[in-house]
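Note to self: user wants both folds in one dump. Writing first protein now.
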Amino acid sequence: MTLKSFLNGALVAGVLFASASVGAAQGLFSPAVTVNDKAVTWYEVNQRARFYEVIRRLGDLKKIAKDDLVNDRLRLIAGDRLGVTVSPDDLKTGMEEFAQRANLTADQFIAALAKDGVEVETFRDFVNAGLVWRQVVGARFQGRVQISDAEVDAALGTAGQAGLRVLLSEVIIPLTPENEEQARAVANEISNLKSYAAFADAAARFSAARSREKGGRLEWLPLSRLPGPIQPVVLELKPGEVSAPLELDSAIAVFQMRGIEELPKPAVPLAAIEYGVLRLAGGRTPETLAQAQRIKNSIDTCDDLYGVNLGGPDEALQVESRVPSEIPRDIALELAKLDRHEVSTALTSSDGNQLLVVMLCGRTAAINEEANRTDVLNALRNRRLASYADGYLEQLRSEATIVEK
């Protein structure tokens, strides 16, 4: 072969290779769908799907990614109409806030994404669209959302109002120094679940609460019975939605909303709750759990706890009456689910070395001053804004020209 023929062959091969590469690139960056002539490329779809995979979102991720990117285009179009912009500082703050859900800084989160093939632009665009939409919704609907004192009273069940009750499912994961990192990771995964069946499966596998035997499902509870800081979080959930992980004193909780409705009669506000806590050495070992079950089967009232602890250290048993807001949040949550003289064994001490046998002795009725009215007001406002936002997004979708490629 002459040098000339070799070079000609190499040139032809190079052209063919370049053509193939260009073709592949064109395919990658070709439109998957257009929204009012604004393209969503397959590259963006693949990147968003990969991003969802990294943050452990479940489902058909490519379909979800494409649908969400179409919605983001609609949100940005609405932002352009109103002249909405997101400053670099606000974008940075938004990225930091999102990364904090994984207990990371934005830079650490971006580095973790990069290891899994997700570009920083994908994360930035995701956060930017959300921030734009928040401004759009606020500009269009904030003035329409007026929450009256009577509505707050109704939610809390005060001033003679009926109040609300909620139908929840729960996953309660005890926190100890040994399992803290794993427990937080599991809780973050659960918070991204989208179906009742998946949440029920997670409750059966990971929850320490007795509700795990029913897939985490609780009976109807008056909203006012839940610990004050948890009430607004729950109130913002729509049926099927799952909360972010909530920090308790020695556990981490995740809730799924199954229903919300007005109480058939006014809730009884509480001035104090009397309860007992018996601490058993051994944590959640099979032996200690079996001991707790034997105690649970043998006692009928809180007075029986003194007999169980007879001859034991005084500090192992605590029976007291406290204002609801002063009760540790993890114990308060367990008490909210109990009727008088019922027992929970879902909790451990902060070091994991003791199992807590929690018994509800009784509730004292009074005017409910525990819940933070401002938090409940904001939760009601956000719930109504979310409803307006969903309707407006559907309107934008119906008015847009969306073409699948």
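First done. Writing the second protein, which came from a different request thread.
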Amino acid sequence: MSTTIEWISEELNCPAKGNLRLEIHGAESVLKAGPHDITFVGDELNLKRLKSSRAGAVIIEQRLEESFQKDYDEAPFASLVVVDAQAAFIKILQKLRPPRSLPEIGISTQADISDTAEIGENCHIYPQVTICPGVQIGNNCRIYPGVYIGEDCVIGDDVTIHANTVLYPDVKIANRVLIHATAVLGCDGFGYRFEKGRFIKIPHTGSVQIEEDVEIGAGTTIDRGMIGATIIGEGSKIDNQVMIAHNCEIGKHNAFASQVGFAGSITTGDYVRCAGQVGIADHVHVGERATLGARAGVHRDIPPGEVHIGTPAAPEKEQIKTVMSMKKVPEMRKQLRELEKQIKELTAQFEVLKNTNQTEDKAA
């Protein structure tokens, strides 16, 4: 799909400068955009990068307008100023790249569906899906090939489950949940007793409960509880390849990046954020609106609202001081060697003076 700057200006309800008849064929990032692409600038870094851009048009964040006009008084591209550049760019991006229409396949005859399963209206169930006895599925759900839904699972309305996902028995999924390919929900937790030199498996008889508007990334694993449920709170967003162990209780609107790992029985408040590869030990509580930086290793509770980084994780300001100090260690070692050398030289000189004084005293 292609359009013009004039059409984009009307769509965004904002003024435009430059060639209003310029045809826009695509949307790209600042440094990858070409003469017929539109891009966006929402921060100072990309505003600087704009000098190296070949974009045909740019959407500018309103707060950057003054700097933009100062640096690009005679800009070689069309410009549009809006309050939220990213939101406006996404809106135009969806016009330029409209979503693919999904087939109305209904319920495939090649799906293996138990006679006791209950399936709501307007559902699309693809070939090679397995739905076990006692399963309940709401309205407007789409379940892709290779999905396995175990006994007595309950799935709400408007749920999408992508290919080869596995739901073990008794998993509960609320409305408007999106689960990406190969996720595994409800497998046994990693729990064992050590008796007489052997690991004895602890039975996990709980379940997994996914609340409304949750998104679960590809390859993510969420273990069932040992007794009660492992819970993912409303609106939380979980990236690909995340591991959440048994009996964790995740608050509302949490966001976890790829390769985050939670041990058993961790709890979080609402609006917690974890960057990539964060690891948290069992039974830790992460307070509301806390943030954990990439690769943070957490072994104790995190207070609400704090930012912790590093391993072991500590408040950001403390860790920055520690890192800066560590960078000075090589220089400090060099200085220490020089001081040791100076001390040896001074000690030798002192011994010479001492011996000289003793000789003079004897002569006197």
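Dump finished. Worth passing along: The longest helix spans residues 329-363.
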